[in-house]
Design a protein that fits this description.
It contains 18 helices and 16 strands. The protein is α/β, with parallel strands linked by helices. The chain is globular, with a radius of gyration of 24 Å. About 1% of the residues have low confidence.
Length: 482
């Protein structure tokens, strides 16, 4: 195999999930950028993204895509959360054609032996594919099984801009993703980012990053939001502030958001610059408000600093988000309630209640091997979806068995934010009865029903006094239930 290739990049969608995916798979857009620059004909189909788009965008089947494009190479990104869907995608590709199939993605850093005996696969890339992907296109497809390719971490200058032009639906996207750096210097006990991206920071040239953003905005006028997806964008506070000044000066007309932000890196100057640059939100990783549980996370910051950071975010008028993890080492029902009470007190604009996954190689995994049980994390979502779909946790301990972890999961989502839909009340009622969540259910109703009633039927003159009355009623219930 040599010369120009026709390359099809695929990301599967999750079956029976109501999660909305507003982004096209970033790893595949990076691969598309590299291969397109090298002269290959690339098409990217992200079924997870397409499933969340309006029905006016036709979604082709895998078979239709293969028949229409006739690729020489098919690349599939494998996430553990989508493991079954990836297996099905391989089956469908192999049943229709005989292209060289290349698998990659974060899954193989943790589970390098998966697919190792599947002779339909040509290559499995473990690591960051930027430095190896083009070379694999020019290698002959092995007949006796896949070759495991150990890819080294990409150098900063090897990280390209994302390519939306080859992605189906990319011209309709309003969000542009960019990495200012890769790597995370921290070693949180529950996180496997250090295995995936390494602890050594690889900073990209900020001027290059800004040129990418400006060029993308010119090429795709629908872009309205720029998202920084770094593992740790504020590892150098002054560098991040420099980027914010550059972004504000560029005048792209886009808002700015950041996926990850450490509380101990936030100060008044940074938030002022962020707001001036069009920043809209800050999401803080709290994980647990219980001092004992939090103290074992090796985060390198304090609960007091997190609370101070939350107040600063509010002070600057930014949307406040918080992330929690249920089931960390030494967690139990009582300690979890401290997190719930803190979320109610802080009143974030949005909350992520993640279920703990003891990823192999992490401190949490070692703890559960000694103090509990560990199951298979493949196909598991750490979040309950908006329509109350979830799987049983992949771990448990004597102090926090699975059924109590699920109960804590449901309770936290019901009581701390407007996540579940009123249309799913019958399903919610069944779960309420099963897990004895009557207090949480009434808390949910008192918060959600008035809002729905106000929006749908009530004249404006009556909304304010009744909203106050409902707020007083909820406060009484909270007092009586303590």
């Amino acid at each position: 195999m040599s010369g120009e290739k026709r390359v099809l990049l695929l990301n599967p969608g999750k079956k029976n999930s109501s999660f909305e995916v507003g982004r096209i798979h970033m790893g595949l857009t990076l691969m598309s950028s590299l291969l397109t620059r090298a002269g290959h004909d690339v098409r990217l189909v992200d079924f997870a993204f397409l499933q969340s788009r309006p029905r006016s965008i036709p979604i082709p089947s895998v078979e239709e895509t293969l028949r229409d494009f006739v690729p020489d190479v098919v690349g599939i990104s494998v996430f553990s959360y989508l493991f079954d869907e990836c297996k099905e995608l391989v089956n469908r590709v192999a049943a229709c054609a005989r292209p060289t199939i290349i698998l990659g993605g974060p899954h193989f850093t943790i589970f390098p032996k998966d697919f190792a005996l599947d002779r339909r696969i040509g290559f499995i890339v473990r690591g960051e594919a930027e430095s190896v992907i083009e070379g694999l296109l020019n290698m002959k497809r092995p007949e006796d099984g896949p070759v495991l390719v150990e890819a080294p971490p990409a150098k900063a200058e090897q990280i390209p801009p994302i390519d939306l032009g080859s992605a189906l639906g990319g011209d309709l996207l309003e969000e542009y993703q960019i990495q200012l750096s890769r790597g995370c210097p921290y070693n949180c006990s529950f996180c496997n980012v250090s295995q995936l991206a390494g602890r050594r920071i690889r900073p990209r040239d900020l001027d290059v990053c800004m040129r990418e953003i400006v060029e993308a905005r010119y090429k795709f006028p629908r872009l309205r939001l720029v998202t920084i997806t770094d593992d740790c964008p504020t590892y150098d506070k002054e560098r991040f502030k420099t980027f914010l000044r550059l972004f504000a000066k560029a005048g792209t007309g886009c808002s700015l958001t950041v996926d990850n932000m450490r509380a101990d890196a936030i100060d008044d100057e940074m938030l002022a610059l962020y707001k001036a640059a069009g920043g809209v939100n800050i999401c803080l990783g709290v994980e647990s408000r219980d001092p004992l549980v939090f103290g074992k996370l090796s985060k390198g910051e304090s609960l007091e600093r997190i609370e101070e950071a939350a107040k600063l975010v509010r002070k600057h008028g930014l949307s406040l988000g918080m992330c929690f993890v249920i089931g960390l080492p030494d967690d139990n029902v009582e300690r979890h309630l401290r997190s719930v009470r803190f979320a109610k007190r802080a009143r974030p604009d949005y909350v992520f209640w993640n279920m703990c996954v003891p990823w192999p190689g992490t401190q949490v995994h070692r703890w559960y091997l000694e103090h509990g049980t560990v199951g298979d994390p493949r196909n598991f979502s750490t979040l309950i979806d908006p329509h109350l779909n979830f799987s049983d946790p992949t771990c448990e301990s004597a102090a926090f068995p699975k059924h109590m972890m699920v109960r804590a999961w449901l309770m936290a989502n019901m009581e701390t934010h407007d996540y579940f839909s009123l249309r799913d009340l019958p399903k919610m009622l069944r779960l309420v009865i099963r897990y004895r969540l009557f207090r949480s259910f009434f808390y949910f109703l008192f918060r959600r029903l008035p809002n729905a009633f106000y929006r749908g039927f009530m004249p404006d003159s009556l909304k304010a006094p009744l909203r106050k009355r409902f707020a007083n009623a909820v406060a009484r219930i909270k007092t009586l239930s303590r």
